[in-house]
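User: Predict the complex with iron/sulfur cluster.
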Amino acid sequence: MATDDCLHNNSLMISGTRAAYIHIPFCRRRCYYCDFPVAVVGDGGGRLNREQAMRRYAESLCREIVLTAREFPATGLDTVFFGGGTPSLLPIEALDAILATLDRSFAITENAEISIEIDPGTFDLAQLKSYQQLGINRYSLGVQAFQDDLLAQIGRTHRYDDINRAIAQLRQAGIDNFSLDLISGLPNQTLAQWENTLENALRVSPPHLSCYDLIIEAGTAFERQAEAGKLPLPPEETAADMYRLTQQRLTQAGYEHYEISNYALPGYQCRHNRVYWENQPYYGFGMGATSFLGGKRVTRPRTRREYYAWVETLNHRENDLNRVWERDPHDQLLETLMLGLRLQQGVNLDAIAQQFGSDKAKRIIDVLTPYRQQNWVDLAPQNGQQWGRLRLSDPEGLLVSNTILTQLFHAFTEEMR
Ligand code: SF4
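Assistant: Here is the predicted structure with iron/sulfur cluster placed in the model:
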C-alpha cells in the first residue's frame, strides 16, 4: 500500500515535468576556470573522428531519453535547453535526432522555449538557419569578455572579431531572442575593462544578459594558479563594484534584474532556468547532467565511458542509488530558500509556512532580523497573507547572499541536531 501511494505521488509530480536539460559535453579545449563535465575534442584535424564521437554520444543520449520516458512518462515539454560544453559543435543531424526523440517521447509543446548555447567561432549563418528550422528559438552566446587579452588569459578559443561576427550572424538570421554570457572578476580585469564589456554588450541590445562573477572551482587550472600565488584576481571590493556597476548600468538601460546574475528586457526571462530557481521538477539527459524527478536528484557519470555504461543499465536504475539524493523536508526547505532567494521576486513565506510549518517561517524571520535592519533583506506584506514575501535587496543584499544563505543553512542544520 505504501509503495502504491508513493508511486502515485511520484507519477503526479512527474506528469508536471515540463522542462528538459540536454548536456552536450564537447569543447575545443578546456577553459582555465571550467569544471564542467566536458570532453575536449580540439579544433585541428581529425574532424571525422570528432563527428563520429559526437554521433555516438547522441545515440546514447537518445537511448537515455527513450528509456527515461518509459520510467517517468510526461506529456508537454515547455522548455528544452541544450547546454554544454559547446552544443554548437554538434552536427545538425545529431541535434535533429535528439529533438525528434524528445518530441516523440514527451511531445514538445507548440510554444516551447528551445534554447541552445553557442560559442563565437563555432557556427556560421547556415548553421543558425538550420537551428531555426529545427525550432530552436533562443540562443545563448558565450561572449565572457570583449578584450582579447582577457579572453586569452582565461583560455577561451574565440576573440573579439569572432564575437562581432557571431552577433552579425544572429542579426542576419533574424534572431531576436538571444542572450550574452559575460564574466566579471577575471584575473587582471579592471573596473574600466568591465565597464567597457558592459558598454559593448549594451551596444548590441541583447534582450537577455547573464553576468556571472568568476568562481575558482576545485580541480581547475585557475585553482592551481591561485594555490601557487599566480592568479592576480581583482580585490574583493573591486569585484563588488563590478556587480554594483552591472546592476546600475543594466537597470538604467531598461533590463529587469530578475535573478542574482540574470537580466532581461520585459518578456525575455529564461523560462527554462526559472524552472530550476522555482525548484520545479525537470529532466536532465547526458553526461554529468542532473535531473530532478519524483523528489529525487540524480547526477549522471561525468565521463563518456561511464555514461555509456550507465545508459545500458537504465532498466536497473535501482543499482545506482549512490547517485540518487532523496530529499527530506529539511533539504527541501533549504533548497527552496537557496534557489528562491536568487530571484528578484524572492520567496513566499506563506507558501513556506503552509508546506513546512509556521514555526519554520518564524525561524527564518528571526534569523534574518539583523539583515533586515541593514536593509539587505526585505519582507514585503502581501494582500490577505499572514507572512509576506521575502527577498534580498538589489544590489547590496544580493552581494552578500552567500553570507545570508550560510546563516539560514546553519540555523536549520543546528535545529536538526
Ligand atoms: S567552452 Fe564552456 S563548457 Fe567548454 S570548457 Fe569553456 S567554459 Fe567549459
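The domain at 329-416 is CATH 1.10.10.920 (Arc Repressor Mutant, subunit A).
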